[in-house]
Each structure stands twice: as structure tokens, then as C-alpha cells.
Amino acid sequence: MTHRQDDLYVRYMSAFSASRTHTSDCERCQNSQDCIVGTPLHERFARLQDAYNTQQSRQPRR
Ligand SMILES: [Zn+2]
Predict the structure, then answer these.
(1) Which residue range is the domain that position 27 belongs to?
(2) Would you say residue 7 lies in a domain?
(3) What's the pTM?
(4) pLDDT of residue 59
(5) pLDDT in tens, 28-56
(6) Which of 13, 46, 50, 55 is 20 to 30 Å from 40 by CA-CA measure?
(7) Is 37 inside any structural domain?
């Protein structure tokens, strides 16, 4: 279970980084006009962010 959590977190951070790196270099994405390259990156990040937040809210606080 711990492994799955870590894996999701790693993928979430990796998607965050990919999305942000692209946006920092892409004028269209900076203006919220997601380009053809950026769109899947941003969608993946949004999906993983949702999944991660859902998982966090289900975990009891330590
Ligand atoms: Zn872009």
C-alpha cells in the first residue's frame, strides 16, 4: 500500500514538473490557451492531482 502511494506521488510530481516546465517555455499555455503539446501534459497533471488529493483525504492523519 505504501508503495502504491509513493508511486502515485512520484507520478504526480513528475506530471507537475512536466506541465510546469512546458508552460514556462510556451506562450500559449501561459495565456491559458493550451497548445497541442501542452494539453495532454496539463490534463495528466490535473488527473494525477485529483487522484493524489482523493487518496490523501482518504488516509487517516498520522
Ligand atoms: Zn504549450
Answers:
(1) 13-58
(2) no
(3) 0.82
(4) 76
(5) 999 999 999 999 999 999 999 999 999 98
(6) 55
(7) yes
- The C-alpha atoms of residue 59 and residue 62 are separated, in whole angstroms, by 9
C-alpha to C-alpha distance for 62 and 49, rounded to whole angstroms: 21
State residue 14's pLDDT score: 97
The domain tally of the chain equals 1
Higher-pLDDT residue of 47 and 59 is: 47
Instruction: Calculate how far, in angstroms, residue 7's C-alpha sits from the geometric centre of ligand 1.
Output: 26
Contact in structure between 51 and 11 (CB atoms under 8 Å): no
Q: How far is the CA of 50 from the centre of ligand 1 (A)?
A: 21
Q: 53 alpha carbon to ligand 1 midpoint, in Å?
A: 25
Cα 1 to averaged position of ligand 1 atoms, centre (Å):
35
Residue 46 Cα to ligand 1 midpoint, Å, equals: 15
